[in-house]
Design goal:
29% helix; 12 strands; 24% strand; Rossmann fold; alpha/beta; ATP binding; single chain; 6-stranded mixed β-sheet
């Protein structure tokens, strides 16, 4: 998943030949809204069988790039290739059978139950001559089981917690049974525990099925913990891509995010941990030790 040629300094990524299979690729991709470019002449390969997280400050083009990968936004220049073919020349139904996408903050009709939501993931497989089948029923059940939402199947989305609701949406994307899964900020508006729950689920699905996953994330430490590869963007261009350890450096955080931070590495996994520094921050004195506490025996020890 590396760009295949050098761009300007903010796009500079080593031009290394990779043996990994690439099914999804951007070539000279320019994306625009109302004629104003948002992503500029971008080259990027998504390595098959990996979890890739796209990171960057607000407005840098992360979600726009993901929309183009999912055929939701037509390029103003260049192209997105899926299995070597321009994605925007492929029939919508064919793309939906190859790429599953969960947009940011999806909306469902009021009163829709989880089972009916997940069943919508089978729509790309329906035609005038092929209606709902046992295969569709089995695919929905597999998706519900994989996301731990089978016991929620008859409940409406309005009755669910944020984490449960997000798992239901992911189940819908899984029911498409595509090998490529695009997730736009799947942890948006979730507390930390539910963010971990959703990302644990995504990683389980990747490991169990070998799916290629591309997701947009804001939390840099979580991106480093869960992704094999990171793509850092700034102003619609690639600033860096590689392993989390290669990308998340104090220099990059300063240049891309305008963030003063210290990068440490988690002892158990080696994943980078980003510790932001406030301009008001000053070293704090170590807390005074209580002599009486020091003399007390450890909890549970005999006195």
């Amino acid at each position: 998943m590396s760009p295949r040629k050098r761009q300007d300094p903010m796009d500079a990524v080593p031009d290394a030949a990779r043996a990994a299979r690439v099914r999804l690729r951007a070539e000279g991709l320019t994306l625009a809204y109302d004629g104003t470019p948002v992503v500029h002449a971008l080259d990027l390969d998504i390595e098959d069988g990996t979890v890739t997280a796209i990171i960057g400050p607000n407005g840098c083009g992360k979600s726009t790039l993901l929309r183009a990968f999912g055929r939701l936004l037509k390029p103003a220049g260049g192209q997105v290739l899926l299995d070597g073919r321009p994605v925007h020349r492929l029939p919508t139904r064919e793309v939906a059978g190859l790429v599953g996408m969960l947009p940011q903050s999806p909306v469902a009709p009021e009163g829709l139950c989880v089972a009916d939501l997940v069943a919508r993931g089978r729509h790309p497989h329906q035609t005038w001559y092929r209606r709902w089948s046992r295969e569709d029923e089995a695919a929905v059940e597999r998706a519900l089981r994989a996301t731990g939402t089978l016991d929620l199947a008859e409940r409406t989305l309005d009755e669910l917690s944020g984490g449960q609701r997000q798992r239901a949406w992911i189940a819908m994307a899984l029911a498409q049974e595509t090998e490529l899964l695009l997730l736009d900020e799947p942890t948006n508006h979730l507390d930390l525990a539910h963010q971990m729950e959703v990302l644990d689920l995504v990683l389980d699905l990747h490991r169990d099925t070998g799916r290629t996953v591309v997701l947009v994330l804001h939390d840099l430490s979580l991106a480093a913990r869960y992704a094999d590869r990171l793509v850092a963007m700034k102003d619609g261009r690639i600033a860096a891509c590689g392993t989390p350890a290669e990308v998340l450096t104090e220099k990059l955080l300063r240049e891309v995010f305008g963030l003063r931070a210290v990068v440490r590495h988690e002892e158990r996994t080696g994943a980078p941990l980003v510790i932001p520094l406030s301009r008001h921050e000053a070293p704090r004195p170590a807390p005074a030790r209580d002599a009486a506490t020091d003399a007390a025996p450890p909890l549970g020890d005999p006195v």
